[in-house]
């Protein structure tokens, strides 16, 4: 099981444009239209499945919100921060 990161490490390692909300890290990606967002959400889902670490994904008209946490560790871990960086690379 991955170890939960402490507050200082989360602050130091959190990728740009991601925010911390309690025990999750969150980013909202914006798109010109709905289908671009759906395509991105599919790419995120494929990466997450390969990594076997699955985020919560919310698709709205011109936004996709991604939330990451490690439930088994009770908070944010290295896996969450690393996956956030992989998702950003898909954008």
TrEMBL record:
It catalyses: (4aS,6R)-4a-hydroxy-L-erythro-5,6,7,8-tetrahydrobiopterin = (6R)-L-erythro-6,7-dihydrobiopterin + H2O. Its EC number is 4.2.1.96. It comes from the Archaea. Keywords: Lyase. It holds the Pfam family Pterin_4a. One of its GO terms (molecular function) is 4-alpha-hydroxytetrahydrobiopterin dehydratase activity. It is an enzyme of class 4 (lyase). NCBIfam families: PRK00823.1-2 (NF002017). Belongs to the pterin-4-alpha-carbinolamine dehydratase family. This is Putative pterin-4-alpha-carbinolamine dehydratase.
């Amino acid at each position: 099981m991955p170890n939960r990161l402490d507050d200082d490490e989360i602050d130091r390692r959190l990728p740009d444009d991601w925010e911390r909300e309690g025990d999750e890290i969150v980013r909202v990606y914006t798109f010109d239209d709905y289908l671009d967002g759906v395509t991105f959400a599919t790419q995120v889902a494929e990466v997450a499945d390969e990594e076997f670490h699955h985020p919560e994904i919310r698709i709205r008209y011109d936004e996709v919100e991604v939330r990451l946490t490690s439930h088994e560790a009770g908070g944010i871990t290295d896996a969450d921060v690393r996956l956030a960086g992989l998702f950003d690379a898909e954008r």
